[in-house]
Write a structure and sequence with these properties.
Blueprint (H helix, E strand, L loop, with lengths): L9 H4 L9 H5 L6 H8 L5 E2 L5 H11 L3 E5 L5 E6 H10 L26 H11 L3 E6 L2 E7 H24 L1
Parallel strand pairs: 1-2
Antiparallel strand pairs: 2-3, 4-5
């Protein structure tokens, strides 16, 4: 037997292991909120006044590539929302006479709003049940942004991708 040979000991079976994940880090879930969407997408908010025409609204929707505009009163408070759907309904009711009409005559005035700390699942349910796709965000009485159903779905898809990656890492190690 060579002189450098040493018989195996208990210490040899103890391997250095790393723990980048644990069951608690893989199962702990922060509640997804409206504020997280606004933080990632920004607070861009496109607004009109009630006295603007639908022609001006249509141009803004086209130029900004969005589906709805908030309508603010003279103090900057939320007075309504004007969506593509509102405009299409009015087009059907008054063909050829629609674009000259005022925003205040077409906008939705009973607006559902949310807050930055609202859970996304709650907002998604409200949107689905109310059959609308845009929701203004109010914080301390001030209009701070707007979330769309697309924002919520995209955020959730990214979460699902991340969860799938975590599961793969947990299984593979």
């Amino acid at each position: 037997m060579p002189s450098s040979y040493q018989a195996p000991s208990r210490k040899d079976k103890q391997q250095a292991t790393t723990h980048s994940q644990s069951s608690s880090t893989n199962t702990t879930k922060e509640t997804a909120t409206v504020g997280k969407i606004l933080a990632s997408k920004g607070n861009d908010l496109f607004a009109l006044r009630p006295q603007n025409t639908l022609h001006e609204a249509v141009e803004m929707l086209r130029d900004k590539r969005i589906g709805a505009l908030v309508v603010k009163n003279s103090e900057g408070g939320l007075q309504g929302i004007l969506s593509e759907r509102d405009i299409v309904r009015k087009l059907a009711e008054t063909p050829g006479q629609t674009l000259a009409q005022k925003v205040e005559d077409v906008m939705t005035t009973n607006v559902e709003v949310c807050h930055p700390d609202d859970a996304l699942i709650t907002v998604l349910r409200k949107m689905t049940e109310g059959r609308f796709r845009h929701m203004p965000v109010i914080d301390d009485g001030n209009l701070v942004g707007i979330v769309t159903i697309g924002d919520v779905v995209n955020y959730r898809l990214n979460e699902l991708e991340y969860e799938a990656l975590q599961l793969k890492q947990l299984i593979v190690g």
